[in-house]
């Protein structure tokens, strides 16, 4: 879908979304902000392999809420309060296994 780095690479089908500021300010643009977030990651924050796809989403949340004015729950369906609560509870009930502490579950740790 997309690739972070220098240069950032995206499929041509994603270009209209990137060039639509109204859509970005109403619906969000999680995909590209996620990829740009990879460029913001710093090794002291990381706990590979568990956080590679997690901490880049800190950038996604920040950009959506502080720059675009889009609530995180609207920007990505996995960021709704219900899903966040359910995910956290399931992780705790499941024994808090490090093998399942990835992407969205790990993001909850950083979001606190």
From TrEMBL:
GO terms for molecular function: transmembrane transporter binding. GO terms for cellular component: plasma membrane. One of its GO terms (biological process) is positive regulation of protein targeting to membrane. Residues 1-112 form the Peptidase M60 domain. Pfam families: Peptidase_M60. This is TRPM8 channel-associated factor. It comes from Clarias magur.
